[in-house]
Amino acid sequence: MSVVMMKRMLLMLAVMVLIIGGLGFVKFQQIQTAIAQGASFQPPPEAVTTIVAEQAEWPDTLNAIGSVAAVQGVTVSADLSGTVDRVAFVSGKAVRQGEVLVELDTRQERAQLAAAEAERDLAGLNFDRMQGLLKDSVISRAEFDRATADSKQTEARVGETRAAIERKTIRAPFSGILGIRQVNLGQYLSSGDPIVQLQSLDPIYVNFGVPQHATGQIHIGREVRITSDDLAGAEFSGRITAMDSVVNEETRNIQVQATLANPRGTLRPGMFVQAEVALGGGRSIVPLPATAISYAPYGDSVFVVGTVKGPNGDSYKGVRQQFVKLEGARGDQVGVIAGVK
Asked: How far apart are CA 134 and CA 274, in angstroms?
C-alpha cells in the first residue's frame, strides 16, 4: 500500500470520528434538556369535590345483622304414597290457598270406594228391614243392634276411602310463591317426600339479635329500617312486632322480630340484611359522605380544605389530613362526632 493511500484512509477515518462524535454530543445535549424539563414539570392539580361540614341532628339508632324469614313457609310434601298422575303448578308462580298442586293416582282407592258404597247400601237395606222386623217383634234387640252397627261401619268405610282419595290431591295450604318443583309426572312418592317449597312473602319477617344491655330501649312498635348490600338503593321499613322471652345464654342477645311490607317480593327468606332500629332520641353530629372517609388501621381521617403553611412559612389555601371519630352510618352518609366541626 502506498503512502498516499494510507494518508487518505487516515483522513477518512478522522472525518468519520468527528461526525459520530458530533452527532453523539448533539444527542447528549437533547437528553440533558429533556431531563431538566421533566424535573421542573408540575402536574396539573387534580379536581376534587368539596362540601361544607354542617352540624345535623342524627337520630339514635341500634344496628344489627338480621335474617329474612317468611311469615308462613313450608315444604309441601306427599301425605300418602302414590304415583304422580298430574302436576298442576308451575315453578316460581303465585298460588292461592286451596289450589291443586299435584294429584296422585287414585284408581285403586276409587275401586275401593265403589265396593264400600255397595256394602253401605246393602247394610242400609238390611237396617231398614231389621227395623221393621223389630217393630213386629220378629227379631231380638241384639240382632237389630248388630244391623245398626253394620250400617254405621260401612258408612265409616266410605268416608275413610273418600278421605284417602282427597289426601292424594295435594293443595296449597296457604297463598304464597312456589319454589322449584321437585317431582315429575309418573314419579312414585312415598309419604313425606318433598314436592315444592311454598313461601308467603308479603308481609315478611326480619329476625335479628339485640344485646341484652339494649333491651330496655327496644319495644314493640319501634320503627325498623332494613337495607341490604345485595339490593343497592333498596330500603324497607317496618316495625318490631315480637321479642323473644329469653336471652340467649351463649351470645347474650335477645331475638327480635320485625314485620315489613314486601309487595314486590324483593326480600326472600334466608337473605342477610342490615337492621336499624330507631331508638327515639338523637344528638348533634357532622354527617359526611362515606366516600370522603379514608379508613386506616391507625385511624380514620378526612381531608380538610383550609389555610396551610408551606416549608418556607408562607400560607396558602390547601388541604390537610384530619383524623376523625365516627359514629355509625345512614345510607351513604357517615356520622362524625369528633375531629370536624
From this structure: 78
CA angle at residue 287 from 282 to 290, to 5 degrees? 130
On whether the CB atoms of residues 271 and 204 are closer than 8 A, the answer is no
Domain that holds residue 90: 76-195
How far is it, in rounded angstroms, from Cα 10 to Cα 4?
10
Paired residues of 171 in beta bridges: 100
Q: Choose among 331, 336, 278: nearest CA to 60.
A: 278
Residue 231 lies in a domain: no
Q: What is the pLDDT of residues 195-216, one digit of tens each?
A: 899 999 889 999 998 888 888 8
DSSP 8-state code for residue 52: -
Question: CATH number, domain at 162?
Answer: 1.10.287.470
260 assigned to some structural domain: no
Domains contained in the chain, number: 1
Q: What are the residue ranges of helices labelled H in the chain?
A: 3-40, 107-135, 141-167
Residue 139 placed within a domain: yes
pLDDT in tens, 21-53: 777 777 777 777 767 665 555 556 666 677 777
pTM of the full structure:
0.62
Residue 244 covered by a domain: no
Nearest to 99 by CA among 211, 19, 196: 196
